[in-house]
Amino acid sequence: MKLKLSERLLAIAALVPYGARVADIGTDHALLPCYLVESEKAASVIGVDVHRGPYERAWQTVREYSLEEYIKIRLGDGLTVLQPGEVDTVVIAGMGGTAISNILTEAPQVTGTLRRAILQPMNNPAAVRCWLWEHGWEITAEDLIFEDKQYYQLIGAENAQSNGVLQSTATVEGSFFPELAAEYGPLLIRHRHPLLPGLLERDLKAMQAMLEQLAKSSQEDVQLRSREAQQQMQKMKELREWLLVAKPSSM
Predict the structure, then answer these.
(1) Euclidean distance between CA atoms 241 and 230, whole angstroms
(2) Average pLDDT of 78-87?
């Protein structure tokens, strides 16, 4: 039986380097680990889930495809169930940006030995990118997927320290629209991803609705938030217009 993955999971799999030893955090049904091994993308995968139900479902999927030799499933919290150097690539997808940052922070002995991270935050992508920059990681690949009426930002990063390269934490310097790089991705912006204007339009509508609610209050702190939101919206509109008229930069 051939595995069928969603467009989102296929895009995540595309960022995994060939021959990687992967940890899939929050593996759920273990569809991604099975796909990575069946497609010979990964040499081995450890799927991790903190909940008993998904843990048992993951094992069921692995057995169904007879991949027990290459895939192990562990019950536990994030990277804490891994040994340093046991994997070289981590996938953390389908969680909030703050939760992803916390997972990377809570097991520094493991995170420090990783070479690559593939991260897909459901919200607050700025928290993820800022964590990467602040901890010496370089964002080397990004993608944007629209599936089931939802936008998904994908971030691929290399651990400059584990690769023996000293990297500046100020990696947004010289990028296009640096003030928006954390939220919308320096590479998504630089390469004018075709879905990015739609994501900006969605966010602009949400911010406009928020401003209409803030306008009903006369409190000073609310007025400050309103001015900050208006300034942010202006930057977003400028980015949207640039995306629609500028020529793509070289890859």
Answers:
(1) 17
(2) 97
Strand pairing category for 20-25 and 42-49: parallel
The predicted structure's pLDDT at residue 215: 81
* pLDDT band with cut points at 50, 70 and 90 for residue 173: low
**Distance spanning both ends of the chain, measured CA to CA:** 37
Query: Which residues have CB under 8 Å from 219's CB, separation 6+?
Result: none
Select from 160, 156, 157 the least CA-distant residue to 144: 156
Please determine, for residue 118, whether its predicted confidence score (pLDDT) is greater than 70.
yes
Which ranges of the chain would DSSP assign to H, the alpha helix? 7-14, 31-38, 52-64, 97-106, 108-111, 125-134, 181-184, 186-190, 196-214, 220-245
Compute the distance between CA of residue 20 and CA of residue 74 in angstroms, rounded to an integer: 18
How is residue 219 written in tokens? 């409190």
* Dist. CA 200–CA 188, nearest whole Å: 12
State the Cα torsion 41-45-51-54 to the nearest 10°: 50
Compute the distance between CA of residue 195 and CA of residue 207 in angstroms, rounded to an integer.
Answer: 19
Cα separation, 12 vs 153, whole angstroms: 10
pTM exceeds 0.85: yes
Task: Determine which helix (DSSP H) or strand (DSSP E) holds 158, and give its type and residue range.
Answer: strand 150-159
Greatest distance between any 2 Cα atoms in the chain = 64
